[in-house]
Design goal:
With 211 residues, this protein is an alpha/beta fold. Helix content is 31%, strand content 30%. Strands 6-7-8-3-9-10 form a six-stranded mixed β-sheet, with helices on both faces. A four-stranded antiparallel β-sheet has the order 2-1-4-5, covered by helices on one side.
C-alpha cells in the first residue's frame, strides 16, 4: 500500500489548521506524528480516514486519487479521539457488533485481538464498568481485529498499564512489515521507539524530523 498526501490544507472558520501538507507513506513503516494539542495531527488523521474533507489538496491510494465524497480507503483500522462503544454491552459484545458490519472475521479473531491488548479477562464486563485504560484497550482491539492494511492510532496508550503497553508495542513492531501504521503520541519515548519516520506538526505546517 502507498498513500500520497499532496498539498493538503484544512481551514476552520477561515483559519488554517493544516497548510499545504504533503507526505509519502508506504507499507512496512510506522509513521509517528508529534506536536502540541491543536497542531493538526488528529485533523490530518481524520482527513485520511474521510471523517473530514480537506479544504484543498488530494490524497492518493496506490497512485489513484480518492474521491472522499464517494469512497474511502479500504481495509483500515482506526482509533481517533478515544474509543466510543455501547455502555450497556460487554467489551466482547461491542466488538462482535463491529465485526458484523464487514463480516470479515469471526469469534476467533476477536478473541485474539482481546488477548493482544490484555483484555481477555474483562471481555464479559459491561463497557460502563471499564476504566480509562480498559476502554483504550478495547479501542485498540477494535482497530486491529480485522488485520487492516492501514492502522491509525491516535494517543493509543492513555491510561494503559506498562505491561500491556509493552505487549501492544511488540505487536505493532511484529505486524508493520505489511502495513502502514500512523501513530500520534505526546510520549517522546514511544515516538522514537516505534517510528521509522517522524513528522512534527506546528502552526499548521508539518516537517520531517531526523531520528
Amino acid at each position: 500500500m502507498i498513500i500520497d498526501i499532496k498539498n493538503v490544507s484544512k481551514k476552520f472558520n477561515g483559519n488554517y489548521v493544516l497548510n499545504d501538507v504533503s507526505m509519502h507513506l508506504e507499507s512496512g513503516n510506522i509513521y509517528g506524528f508529534s506536536g502540541r494539542n491543536g497542531s493538526g495531527k488528529s485533523v490530518l488523521l481524520k482527513i485520511i480516514t474521510g471523517l473530514y474533507l480537506a479544504s484543498s489538496g488530494s490524497i492518493f491510494l496506490n497512485d489513484q486519487e480518492i474521491d472522499y465524497k464517494k469512497e474511502f480507503i479500504p481495509n483500515i483500522g482506526v482509533l481517533i479521539d478515544g474509543p466510543k462503544f455501547f455502555s450497556n454491552l460487554t467489551g466482547l459484545e461491542n466488538l462482535q457488533i463491529l465485526a458484523n458490519i464487514n463480516s470479515k472475521i469471526g469469534e476467533k479473531e476477536i478473541l485474539e485481538a482481546l488477548e493482544i491488548v490484555n483484555l481477555t479477562k474483562e471481555k464479559d464486563k459491561k463497557y460502563s464498568k471499564y476504566s480509562l485504560g480498559m476502554k483504550q484497550k478495547l479501542g485498540i482491539a477494535s482497530a486491529i481485529m480485522e488485520d487492516p492494511e492501514l492502522l491509525i492510532l491516535d494517543e493509543p496508550f492513555n491510561g494503559i498499564e506498562d505491561a500491556s503497553v509493552l505487549k501492544i508495542k511488540n505487536y505493532l513492531k511484529s505486524i508493520k512489515d505489511k502495513k502502514i501504521i500512523l501513530l500520534s503520541t505526546h510520549i517522546k519515548e514511544d515516538l522514537y521507539e516505534l517510528s521509522d519516520f517522524i513528522y512534527y506538526f506546528d502552526a499548521s505546517h508539518v516537517r520531517s524530523l531526523d531520528k
